[in-house]
Amino acid sequence: MSTAASTINYDRRGLLGTLGRDGLLQIILIANTIIMLMPIIIMVFSAFKTTPQIFQSPFGIPDFGNVVNFVKIWNETNFLRYLLNSFIVTGASMALILTLGTMAAYAIARYEFWGAGFILMFFLAGLTLPLKLAIIPLFMLMRDLGILNNQLSLIFVYTAMGLPTTVFILTGFIRTLPNELEDAARMDGASEARIMWSIMLPLVRPAMVIAGIQNVVPIWNDFFFPLVFIQRDNLKTLPQGLTTFMGEYTTDWGVLFSGLTLSAAPIIIIYIVLSKQFISGMTSGAVK
Fold this sequence. Notes:
By secondary structure, this protein is mainly α. It is built from 13 helices and no strands. The protein has helices at 2-47, 51-56, 68-76, 79-110, 116-125, 135-145, 151-174, 180-187, 192-221, 224-229, 238-241, 253-273, 275-282. Helix 4 crosses helix 9 and helix 7 packs across helix 9. It is globular and about 70 Å long.
């Protein structure tokens, strides 16, 4: 009886300890969620307030029927032009990054040739070299190429910035895929391009989503390179264009926060739509 009682007490203490650890972990996760969401909530609330209301009650719930700030954004600014420019630059950059990065990663991961390791290390070296340190040579290069005040300058720079991360992620993912799929396709007479496009690309899609999200956020939010390469107002992207809402002496914070809310909405929507593939890509190697 004493042995059975001690076993029950030991199991009870173990259960209480597990519940305590789980409860503490959940508290930490909830607190982290609140900390991460609070700036976004304040930004959205402030978009529906006037400047005095923002400073008087920054945490107060606004009147969501008050869309005056959004009407100002729509009618009195070039916000739509800035938004279109951001879509063009980000979309073109991501298309080049994913296309070139997937082709390079597939070649490095699947074909055995002299210098494959060196090429991979060459791409990985890009992770350690911030392009902002080379802004003066880059500016002179874009000037000599005649693409200053041109969206091509941003697209080329962002593509160069995104390729190292993309090649690193996709190379590791492609190496985990079985070779038997490609061997069977070759026996059926499929070309190398057909194998990559029809067989490997669908399998690599979760990793492409990870690489895409990893690159689309810094490209969409970048302020530095548009500030250096773009001076014409009709070519400015959203982060640079939003600075026009800030004056030297006064700033309409309600309009600014409404612009920030609208500029953040596309990235949030993209993440929500692709969240399942993002999670599956992150956990694809966890369980065999």
